[in-house]
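Deliverable D2.4 — example input (structure tokens):
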């Protein structure tokens, strides 16, 4: 229990981004005092104005174009170091719980993939977590592609981290037919990437 709560019998007031999105109880119950101080010390986005040193919990916000999911997904990105994985996991779990928009889900899973894969050599479950995030991102790829094409007509779809990262994992496991199938799927959906080069390389390995 925090010192403030012991002294006054109630939780400290939370404003800022967490207060705006109703994340105060989650914030106070999920992290201890040391972790909360660390998170706020690390999270210092350049876009925050008004001289707020703790934008997550201080200052009144009237409106924002962010969603709770995009806030949490972006916050998790500040904790990509393997030693911060425990903090990132808790933030990502809340972000996934809060996400309802498929495009937000797409970018959340992208963040998960990058964070988990980076810690694969130091955490026993990080690689499998990264693969699962790839699979989740791929499972909504058709829906997200349709939404992005509708929102940005005439523009090419961006790169798809889930397809790329899963292909890398499968190729390292010598699962070349699975890689080829996956790359053809990415091509058919219109995602940007060097899919043809990977197909060609895997086909050559199959012929050896």
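Example output (designed residues):
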């Amino acid at each position: 229990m925090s010192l403030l709560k012991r002294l006054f019998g109630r939780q400290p007031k939370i404003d800022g981004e967490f207060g705006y999105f109703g994340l105060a109880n989650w914030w106070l119950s999920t992290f201890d005092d040391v972790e909360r101080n660390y998170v706020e010390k690390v999270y210092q986005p350049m876009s925050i104005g008004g001289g707020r040193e703790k934008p997550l919990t201080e200052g009144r916000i009237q409106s924002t174009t962010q969603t709770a999911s995009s806030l949490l997904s972006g916050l998790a990105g500040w904790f990509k170091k393997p030693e911060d994985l425990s903090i990132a996991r808790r933030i990502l779990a809340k972000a996934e719980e809060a996400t309802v928009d498929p495009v937000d889900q797409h970018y959340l899973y992208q963040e998960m993939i990058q964070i988990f894969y980076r810690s694969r050599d130091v955490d026993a479950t990080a690689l499998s977590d990264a693969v699962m995030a790839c699979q989740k991102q791929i499972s909504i790829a058709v829906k997200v592609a349709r939404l992005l094409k509708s929102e940005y007509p005439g523009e090419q779809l961006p790169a798809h981290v889930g397809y790329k990262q899963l292909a890398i994992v499968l190729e390292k496991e010598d699962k070349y037919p699975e890689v080829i199938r996956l790359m053809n799927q990415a091509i058919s959906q219109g995602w940007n990437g060097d899919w043809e080069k990977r197909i060609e390389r895997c086909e050559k390995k199959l012929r050896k």
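The chain has twelve helices and no strands.
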